[in-house]
Amino acid sequence: MFWKKIIVMLLFLTLFFIVVMAGLLSPTRNYLQNRKDGFLLNAINDAVNSGVIEKKDSDRLFYLISKSKEVISSEHPLSDDLADILERFERMAMREGLSRKDLLVLEKTLEVNLKYVNQSRSEPELFERFFDPSLSFPFVYINGQGFNFHPINALNYATELLEYKGDELGFVRVMGDLLDYLEVEKVRDIEFGVLKFYFAWERESIPWISSISQGIGSAYFALAYSITGETEFERAARLLANSFQVPSGMGGFRIELDYGPFYVEYSNAPFDLVLNGFMLSLKGLWIYSQIIEDSAALEAFSSGIKTLESLLPKYDVEGWSAYSIFYSWSVESYPTFHGMASERYHRLHVRLLYFLGKASGSQVLKAYVEKWDNCLIKAGLKSEIERAKEEYEFWISKVLG
Fold first, then answer.
1. Quick one: pLDDT band at residue 203, thresholds 50, 70, 90?
2. Which of 134, 100, 116, 122 is nearest to 68 (CA)?
3. 9: pLDDT confidence band, cut at 50, 70 and 90?
4. Distances 247 to 125, 203, 269, 297 between C-alpha atoms, Å
5. Which residue, 102, 135, 175, 329, could crosslink 224 as a Cys pair with Cβ 3.0–4.6 Å?
6. Angle 92-93-96 (CA atoms, 0-180°, nearest 5)?
7. By CB neighbour count within 10 A (0-12 exposed, 13-18 middle, 19+ buried), where does 176 fall?
8. d(CA 362, CA 353)
9. Each residue of 334-351: b (16+ CB within 10 Å) or e?
10. What's the pLDDT score for residue 50?
11. pLDDT band at residue 202 using 50, 70 and 90 as cut-offs
């Protein structure tokens, strides 16, 4: 009898050890599975009580969270991804609560991932797109974080429709859907709009914003306004353009260097001066300012061009471009580069410099177009100038109508 008790006790301890270790090996999944309540659920309830969302919206969210926990308990490849999604939004709820837009993104993110679960058991690849029938643009897969709203990729898809397929109606539909994701904020006397990212990139902190989607977004909303005449597109364009006045640390992405203002690609990593991100934001600002009269935006563009002219030597590595450089409080301590640009990004740099050189009339930018394109030719690669001309002429035709 004594030995039976010992055996039962040992079996119990073994089972207990297995359960504990399983929780340690998958803390996120274990944490979410066993929660009865939490900041996320409380935040949803608070949103209903304060009139931020309606009861039917909270019911929908609770249902989606419940279905997500079922997947988390399964062996589906997205089980840990769904756990990560819930944990990310729970951390946001703990830190600052959730806005109506945050809850909209949470709802759509869970919907998209659950639809993928119902359709496939394969593990997605990084940046794989998933098209939800209720949306005109795709959500994008980020390793370990599921399919997410990705403003830059959504705008890239709008580019594909307009520039490569000539689908103006599809372009307008994408911009119309993106209106739902535009959040309006205010700093001092500046009312501005943001398209937020809710997945971790560069750093863990979320949400964050990017100068690319802010700049290109302002341009594309302005184009949608010029096509349709709908004032909601004009307002969205102006709000995104206003964000170029907001400093980093106050909800913005603008940092002040000794060279002038720089618009960073990652608001959560303002020390990383990514060249293509800066130039894409300037391209967007210029297109916007050609359609909508806005002196502040034009000044943000002009001062940004001066910064670019001064910084370009820092990105030049024997005729090839750097992808980014690190920011430091001391100008002298800028490293030559953070990372070399791949051929793909080097070609993008040439095209963007060509566009900005034409738009601004800068001889400095034009000189770097020639220098960096010659580096391609000397390496036995095809010149990028012809493609740069085609892109410039396309956008000029859109601006002129």
1. confident
2. 116
3. low
4. 35, 19, 13, 15
5. 175
6. 75
7. middle
8. 10
9. beebbeebeeebbbbbbb
10. 94
11. confident
